[in-house]
Write a structure and sequence with these properties.
Helix content: 25-40%
Strand order of the largest sheet: 21-22-23-24-25-26-27-28
Radius of gyration: 50 Å
Number of strands: 28
Structural class: alpha/beta
Bound molecules: ligand C2E, calcium ion
Number of helices: 19
Shape: rod-shaped
Strand content: 15-25%
Length: 706
């Protein structure tokens, strides 16, 4: 199975960051308030059964001691026999089983005590100590070596409970001296407490001493306010960094995703290819499939943009599912939409055979009609394929090869694939060379103009002439405008050519002004479809009209019907601007562009030039194509458009079109394209001569039936 590199198009809602920050702010405030009101208070009852702390008695030789526990309240009773020396009695609470390992009590900051002491003397003080074990000075065998963190007080004078802050505890000075402790270790240390002790102060009188511990509960904050603030700050920092990263990723996703199909776009593809190309090696190269739907504009025009968009989505799904179902093992691939109806599939590590079978598989899958919500349509596709190698090791070089192969496939009749090879590169080279020669010919002024007469069909009066460009230079010998004009369009030289033709026609008219006034003549100038996207074009024509003082009604401009396939709002503006200069417009090669007849009204055209192919078909046996001319003629009549039949080569064709109402004719039967001087000679001939010629010719041929 292939592995699609998925670059998701799901992105977070735009107010996500704001919501997250508000929630965090509320949370921070709540936590701080909670903390203020002791919400994060913790306690540790040292007498609690749950904790399993043990109790023991503490006394010296002159004392008999005994610990009893009643209802969880421990008390120690001591009998002092001999008051000489230092005597003591006490209770120890063992927090750990091993004297080396105690509890860390440093989170606590106070202890609540309720201790009762009975003694035969007035001296009823106790010493409350936390004994800390520290490996650097405590000896596990010497119990006294554990650090004494103590406080002394007289519980009976307090009447019950007392809360002592733990920072009131001090390290015993005798202990510091005994163990010669330095300043650093002389501080209160609650980090490792194995024992807590409550011991009488020096006992002086013989008798009974009883210490009862009713309560010893440590309390503290789970976390200090300062630490809490630090943590909140840290959380803010992390969240902000996270949001910035998310935002960044979101922007990146949006900028690399095609919103219509959810595929990655050209930018995303470029990134992917650039990341994957450096690692290419023989057998693991990248292969690019460059798809271009054939005549997609027609679908857009006939069914509307929504249907067009739907088709693009269905198409992308179809290709995705086709590649997804193929048994090519573990090839990374990425399928993307480049623009409009252009898509690209880039795969890693396919061999020549796999490439070809994948291409075939794709065409096979596209044989089935694609169903849309309102209709089903056929998809025709031109596909160019190229693989990376030493001389195509960048994104742009790979893309340009695949694009050229696609162009080749399209030129060779569409609905096919072409793998980049010598022929394609030869074709690229040829086109580059022709483009260069055209540039040179323009610079050296080597072009000339020919004129092909256009006649009134009824009586063969010369109505005008179509201006046709000829390359006079040796280097462009045998290369006609049908070849160099499309190349000039591709290499952006066409505007210079169109303006050159217009200016030189105007110059000629200017030079022959009086003659033309006497012999009225319409000049039909061909305009490239590229100009329909150039809003300066009408202004450039206007300048030239003024410069040479040309009456605009002497000029007609021809645009091909197929150029309307790419027409947009700007194109209609351009056409209207030309029309508003007073120049008539005609639709060239009419019938080949499939303009919906009702769309014709959108364009300010006055004349339809019926394409030569339909005239050619009149003599063929193909009945359906024959009827095209009649259909075009009746449409033109309905929309009040003039008609010219192009490419008339025999009398039967002429008779057929003129008898069915075609206004004008043009073709080799009457004249080939001529130089200006030859045209003037023709104009001097009486039209009767032409009619007679037709009559004599027609007798030798049969006539064309409907
Ligand atoms: P087009 O505008 O359809 O011009 C008519 C073409 O058909 C001319 O070829 C003409 O010589 C040829 N033709 C006319 N009648 C007949 C006929 O009865 N039989 C045959 N076999 N051919 C006939 P050409 O001059 O080679 O021009 C080819 C195309 O190049 C033109 O097609 C036009 O699209 C383009 N072109 C020519 N001159 C210019 C120009 O000045 N500017 C632009 N933009 N395009 C031009
Ligand atoms: Ca033409
Ligand atoms: Ca034509």
């Amino acid at each position: 199975m292939l592995r699609q590199i998925h670059i998701g198009n799901e992105y977070l809602p735009s107010d996500f960051s704001i919501r997250a920050l508000v929630i965090l702010l509320l949370f921070s405030i709540s936590v701080l308030i909670f903390h203020r009101y002791d919400g994060l208070q913790i306690t540790l009852p040292l007498l609690s059964k749950n904790e399993n702390f043990g109790f023991g008695s503490l006394s010296n030789n002159n004392v008999i001691s005994n610990v009893v526990e009643q209802d969880g309240v421990p008390s120690v009773t001591c009998q002092l026999m001999d008051p000489s020396g230092y005597n003591y009695c006490g209770l120890s609470i063992e927090l750990g089983e091993d004297p080396k390992i105690g509890r860390d009590l440093s989170v606590f900051n106070a202890i609540e005590l309720n201790i009762d002491i009975q003694a035969p003397t007035e001296n009823k003080r106790v010493r409350f100590s936390f004994r800390n074990f520290n490996a650097s000075y405590s000896d596990p065998n010497d119990f006294v070596s554990l650090k004494f963190n103590s406080i002394k007080y007289a519980p009976n004078s307090l009447n019950g409970s007392i809360k002592v802050p733990l920072n009131a505890f001090q390290v015993e000075s005798w202990w510091l001296e005994e163990y010669t402790i330095g300043f650093d270790d002389a501080q209160l240390d609650l980090s490792n407490i194995p024992f807590v002790e409550i011991v009488t102060d020096d006992m002086k009188a013989v008798g009974t001493y009883v210490i009862t511990v009713r309560n010893a509960t440590l309390s503290g904050e789970l976390i200090s306010e300062q630490d809490l603030l630090k943590i909140i700050l840290l959380v803010w920092l992390i969240v902000i960094i996270l949001l910035i990263t998310l935002q960044h990723n979101k922007l990146k996703t949006v900028s690399t995703t095609d919103p219509l199909t959810g595929l990655i776009n050209r930018r995303g593809l470029e990134e992917w290819v650039s990341n994957n190309l450096p690692s290419f090696s023989i057998g693991a190269s990248l292969t690019m499939f460059y798809f271009d739907l054939d005549d997609f504009k027609k679908i857009n025009d006939s069914f509307g943009h929504l249907v067009g968009d739907e088709l693009l989505c269905r198409f992308s799904e179809k290709i995705s599912s086709t590649i997804g179902s193929l048994p090519l093992s573990a090839h990374k691939y990425v399928f993307s939409r480049l623009s409009g109806d252009e898509f690209s599939l880039v795969l890693k590590g396919l061999n020549a055979q796999q490439i070809e079978s994948l291409a075939k598989e794709i065409f096979h899958a596209l044989k089935k009609r694609i169903s849309l919500s309102s209709s089903t349509v056929n998809i025709s596709l031109s596909l160019g394929i190229a693989s990376s190698d030493q001389s195509a090791s960048t994104f742009s070089s790979l893309m340009s090869r695949a694009d050229s192969a696609m162009y080749y496939a399209k030129k060779s009749g569409k609905n096919q694939f072409k793998i980049f090879d010598k022929n394609v590169s030869k074709d690229i080279l040829f086109r580059k060379q022709v483009a260069e020669k055209v540039r040179t010919a323009l610079k050296k002024n080597e072009f000339t103009l020919n004129f092909m007469p256009i006649y009134q069909a009824s009586d063969l009066t010369i109505y005008g002439a179509e201006v046709l460009l000829r390359a006079g230079s040796e280097s462009l010998k045998n290369i006609g405008p049908d070849i160099f004009i499309p190349i000039a369009e591709e290499f952006n030289i066409i505007n210079d050519i169109d303006l050159w033709v217009i200016e030189n026609t105007f110059k000629l008219i200017d030079a022959n002004r009086v003659y033309i006034q006497q012999n009225p003549l319409m000049f039909g100038i061909n305009i490239s479809s590229v100009e329909l996207h150039n809003n300066y074009f009408p202004k450039e024509i206007s300048k030239l009209l003024h410069k040479y003082k040309i009456p605009p009604e002497w000029i007609e401009m021809e645009i091909t019907e197929t150029s309307l396939i790419e027409a947009d709002e700007l194109s209609i503006t351009v056409l209207n601007d030309i029309r508003n200069l007073g120049i008539r417009l005609s639709l060239d090669d009419f019938g080949t562009g499939y303009t919906a007849f009702n769309q014709l009204m959108r364009y300010p055209v006055a004349c339809l030039k019926i394409d030569k192919s339909f005239v050619d078909d009149l003599t063929s046996t193909n009945e359906s194509r024959k009827t095209m001319i009649k259909a075009i003629l009746s449409i033109a009549k309905a929309y009040r458009l003039a008609t010219i039949a192009e490419g008339i080569e025999n009398v039967e064709q002429y008779k057929y079109v003129s008898e069915r109402g075609c206004d004008m004719v043009q073709g080799y039967l009457f004249s080939k394209p001529l130089t200006w001087d030859a045209l003037t000679l023709l104009l001097a001939e009486p039209k009767e001569k032409r009619m007679a010629l037709i009559q004599t010719n027609s007798t030798s041929h049969g006539s064309i039936k409907d």
